[in-house]
Amino acid sequence: MIRRPARAFTVLPAVFGRVRDFPVLARAIISIAPCGRRGRLRAASVYYVFLLVVAVLAIVAYLLLVYRSVPGAVEERLGVLEPLPDDLGVWKADVSPAAEAARAEGLCREVRTFLDQGRLIEQTRYRDLESGEIVRVDKDRVLKRKRIKPGHSDRKSRKRLATVVREENRHILVRLPLVTGPDGLPQVVAADGDRTAAVLGGRGDSLTDLLADDPHLAPFLSIPSKDNGIDIEGIAAVGDRIYVGLRGPVLRGWAVLIEISPETDPDDPGRLRLRPLDSGELYHTHFLDLGGLGIRDLCPDGDDLLILTGPTMSLSGPVRVVRWPNAAKVAAPDIVHADELTVVGNLPHGDGEDHAEGIAVLDETHGDGPTLLVVYDSPAGERLTDHGGIYADVVSFSR
């Protein structure tokens, strides 16, 4: 067997210089390879490695050309590293209304923000104004993610999606006394006899603080509400109990409803506190099989609860009203199966518009049986009036 290495080095440059397609080059490489099967396999391997190198170089050249020639291409494809807050991890005195309330108790409310596995978390602690000692801390809270608005550039949209903020008024429950005003319409007042405006939350006693150790919902507290975190949208009062419906999360198709019983704090008529339920617990969680839908609103109808159901995310999908019979008589946490619920009716929805957001049973009737008022978020154009009003729907339903 005769080896011909010299011929290989002299022929390859000539072939490569005038080759028009790679098959010609392949035949040239194989034809000058050492005789035998092993030699030809080695030559074929060299050919394919050569093709791979050429492909990689071509991709690199293309990317360099595009990223250097097209403005904003790097930011669009690779993103932009947004700077973190300068005071990340630094404790600072809070100036929110909650801080003013704490100061009235002789406490200084301090907050800081830190980064935990890509999420911005807010921590809160309270110092005694006289001793300077830390007397209590609140549970860690995730900050809400900002939404993209029309007209924002891609860079600004990315920045908003990477930004989360905490809004304290999303973590409180407020009681407002109503009286009949001079025009015959309900009017909000600060007090009416022994009925006073009062708030639950803002001092480490909010509903989300209560759920910090809940085996089902605690894992979702660190997720922004609109990213399938704790998203409260429905609320109904039945006697001395409050029912809170969650749009999300939905756990394997089961929607979550929370039951609490707030009362006036005897030491502060402007504050609420939770009284134990019949079971001795401060809250009950009820799981309802709504076919994978979340709770958009709640409305009492006698001892029943009417539940407005819809998609958990910002999607256009099935919207229906479901009845939970005798919900007010349930004295313990419950699992409510689909056959224990009654579908009152389906509501229309548009594509990206006309999302049913609230329901209320009306006193007057407009036909056979009771009537239901339905109001919509993102109303369609035909619902808008010339004077800035929005048309709602009034529909009849059966009990």
Can you offer a commentary on this structure?
This protein is an alpha+beta fold. It has 7 helices and 27 strands.
Strand content: 25-35%
Task: Please give the oligomerization state of what you see.
Answer: single chain
- Give the N-to-C terminal Cα separation: 98 Å
| Largest sheet composition | 5 strands, antiparallel
- Low-pLDDT runs of 5+ residues are 1-19
Give me a quick take on this structure.
By secondary structure, this protein is of the alpha+beta class. The chain has seven helices and 27 strands.
Features:
399 residues; alpha+beta; 3 domains; 5-stranded antiparallel sheet; 5-stranded mixed sheet; 7 helices; extended
Architecture blueprint of SSEs:
Elements (H helix, E strand, L loop, with lengths): L4 H14 L3 H10 L5 H33 L3 H6 L13 E2 L3 H8 L2 E10 L2 E10 L5 E4 L3 E2 L1 E2 L8 H8 L2 E2 L7 E3 L2 E3 L5 E3 L2 E2 L2 E2 L1 E3 L6 H4 L20 E8 L2 E8 L5 E7 L1 E4 L2 E7 L9 E6 L4 E8 L2 E7 L8 E6 L10 E2 L5 E6 L7 E8 L8 E7 L15 E4 L3
Parallel strand pairs: 19-23
Antiparallel strand pairs: 1-2, 2-3, 3-4, 3-5, 6-7, 8-13, 9-10, 11-12, 14-15, 15-16, 16-19, 17-18, 20-21, 21-22, 22-24, 25-26, 26-27
Helix pairs in contact: 1-2, 2-3
